[in-house]
Amino acid sequence: MNDTLIDEATIDRRLAQRLKALRSERGWSLDSLAKLSTVSRATLSRLENGEVSPTASVLGKLCAAYGLPMSRLMRMVEDDFAPLVRPGEQTIWHDPSVGFERRSLSPPAQTLAGEVLECRLDAGARITYDAPPRPGLEHHLTLLEGALDVSVNGQSYQLRPGDCLRYQLLGPSAFATPDDSAARYLLFIV
After folding, report:
1. In this predicted model, what pLDDT tens digit does every residue of 116-156 receive, in sequence order?
2. What is the distance between the alpha carbons of residues 150 and 183, in angstroms, rounded to a whole number?
3. How far apart are CA 48 and CA 168, in angstroms?
4. Which residue has the higher pLDDT, 85 or 166?
5. Could you tell me which residues are beta bridge partners of residue 184?
6. Around Cβ 73, how many Cβ atoms within 10 Å?
7. Helix, strand or coil for residue 177?
8. Would you say 81 and 110 are in contact if contact means Cβ atoms under 8 Å apart?
9. Which of 121, 124, 150, 154 has the fewest CB neighbours in a 10 Å radius?
10. 60 sits in which H/E element
11. pTM of the model
């Protein structure tokens, strides 16, 4: 592997192709996927044609419909598995609509169960997910900097730097920062 990041345009193009392939593999129409994901048919079409970049919320809805974690979807659009992942090889994905950045420090692989993400959420930002990609998915979230409010399984937690929140994702979730503080955290998914 090389020491350069995969550019966002390449990731967006690969993501569009993979989303279209996932729907095709299941034999679903755009209308069927729209009903399952609650994402409009028009938005799905624009995503699959690479006309727009997906938001974290939309990807969360699509992953829930497909029954796979977002990180697994992102792994499907990245290069082949390598045991050593140097910083220049770690894929970064942005959702500028909410001020979210996701770096795949240790991407998932077919033979490895866990993965590690470094996430940044701008001050005053909020991301919500209606359903888990796979019920019972284990998360360990460690806040490195800033402040972060996390709601999972009907419980709300206010995290400070150094705190670790451990949970199995069974229902809706939300991540929010106060207006005066961004957040940087590690998310371990098993």
Report:
1. 999 999 999 999 998 887 888 899 999 999 999 999 989 99
2. 11
3. 31
4. 166
5. 120, 145
6. 20
7. coil
8. yes
9. 154
10. helix 56-66
11. 0.65
How buried is residue 27: exposed, middle or buried, by Cβ count under 10 Å (0-12/13-18/19+)? exposed
Kindly provide the b/e burial profile for residues 121-151, where b requires at least 16 CB atoms within 10 angstroms of the residue's own CB: beeebebebebbbeeebebebebeebbbebe
Query: Is residue 129 classed as helix, strand or coil in its secondary structure?
Result: strand
How far apart (Å, rounded) are the C-alpha atoms in residues 150 and 43?
A: 28
Q: Of 58, 140, 45, which Cα lies nearest the Cα of 98? A: 58
123 with 176: CB under 8 angstroms? no
What values do phi and psi take at 155, rounded to 5?
A: -115, 145
> Tokens standing for 107?
């991407």
pLDDT digits (tens, 9 = 90+) for 57-79: 899 899 999 988 887 787 777 65
Closest CA to 88 of 165, 170, 145, 6: 6
Between the CA of residue 101 and those of 26, 42, 94, 183, what are the distances in Å? 30, 25, 5, 11
Residue 3 pLDDT greater than 60, yes or no: no
Higher-confidence position of 108 and 155: 155
Q: Which is nearest to 166 in space by CA: 188, 187, 139, 148?
A: 139
Type of residue at 57: S
Sign of the Cα pseudo-torsion (7, 76, 114, 110, in order): negative
What is residue 74's predicted lDDT score, i.e. its pLDDT?
Answer: 77
